[in-house]
Amino acid sequence: PGTGWAYYWNSFFVHENWDRFFHSEHQGNNTWYYYLEILIGGTLPWIPLTLAAIWQSARTSFKDLREHKGLSLILCWLIPSYIFMNIAQTKIPSYVFFLLVPLALLAGHTLERWLKEGLTRREFWFVSVFTLVEGVILIWYTPVFHPRSMPFLAQLIALGLPLTFASICAFRKNAFGWVAFSTSFSLVLIFIAFFWIEDRLDGTVGSRDICKIAAEVRKPNETLITCSFLGRATNYYLKEKPAAIFVSSPKTLEGKAKENFRPFYPFYSYHALRQIKLETELLNFVQEKGTVLCIGERRDFDMLNTSKVSSVKGHCELLGATGEKPGRAVFRIHSQQFKSDKP
Predict the structure, then answer these.
(1) Between vectors from CA 108 to CA 158 and to CA 84, what angle results, nearest 5°?
(2) CB-based burial of residue 317 (10 Å sphere; 0-12 exposed, 13-18 middle, 19+ buried)?
């Protein structure tokens, strides 16, 4: 790859800004409502408040602007920024996180009115029912209709109870109680994520544990490769740059216009690591090295070992895995078809 100012200009200004504005890297996200879902869903458990604040702003904005001068700044921050980000073709959740700040300020304006004056008739029914539905989804709907969530039943109940109690307060027209229990939901969520299921969560979305396994099963001087997503994590935890990353060739990705995929260059800025096409080059690379140790997601092992387009189909030996989907996996790729000695 290139280096210096020319590379920086091409990677950052041309690719990261110009290309991403006019071309969609993740075409499944490129819808008019994508950021709306992110902003509203990201305010859980304050979704009823957020929707009420948006409705109030749309209905009484001109009157409120005369009475509350600070709203001008909030709306001028929120609306043009949202329109600009929505016009851009590449849409990624983190791009729009900054708009949660003006949205929260807008919601705070509505919340202040609720605490001083109470809820209107429409707001009363909307907040009460919507909050109850949130609690029911967590306590009953998710465990019943999504059996894979059953291992987390206790956590779902712990999250659903504050929302259920908040809905009771809303039905009793106790705005302060609704706020207090909604706030407790956020505290419970933090406790669950960082203390209750920390190990399971880290194994599912983190790479520390899988890198420990890789260090234990790796042969002396064995070549290390990863998927494009875990290259930096591998370098961080193992203190060693992988020799290469495997990627799909453009031809394999044809016809997937509406699916999310890991783009190949030039959609990503050129990766400092060598890129090996899994359809043609990967087998030759493994035969050159003898064996290769690979760190990736669970689906990477399945794809490389079973996909018709993979040049190392049937060559992969699973050595360890962590977490639920997407999870992580470490596996050895052999130069010949691998047959396990285990019955």
Answers:
(1) 100
(2) middle
Give the other-Cβ count within 10 Å of 87's Cβ: 10
With vertex at residue 241, the alpha carbon angle to CA 239 and CA 247, rounded to the nearest 5 degrees, is 140
Q: Which residues face 317 on adjacent strands?
A: 332
Residue 178 has pLDDT above 50, yes or no: yes
Residue entry with tokens 């059996």? 147
* Residue 143 DSSP SS3: helix
Torsion of CA 222, 227, 233, 236, to 10 degrees: 30
Contacts of 65 (CB under 8 A, 6+ apart): 71, 72, 75
Residue-by-residue DSSP string for 247-287 = E--HHHHTT-TTS---PPTTSSPPPSSEEEETTTHHHHHHH
Cα 43 versus chain centre, distance: 15
DSSP annotation string for 125-169 = HHHHHHHHHHHHIIIIIHHHH-GGGGGGHHHHHHHHHHHHHHHHH
Tell me the pLDDT tens digit for each residue of 304-322. Answer: 999 888 999 999 999 999 9
| Model confidence, pTM | 0.71
User: C-alpha distances in angstroms, 204 versus 198, 199, 342?
Assistant: 10, 9, 26
Question: At residue 138, what is the residue type?
Answer: L
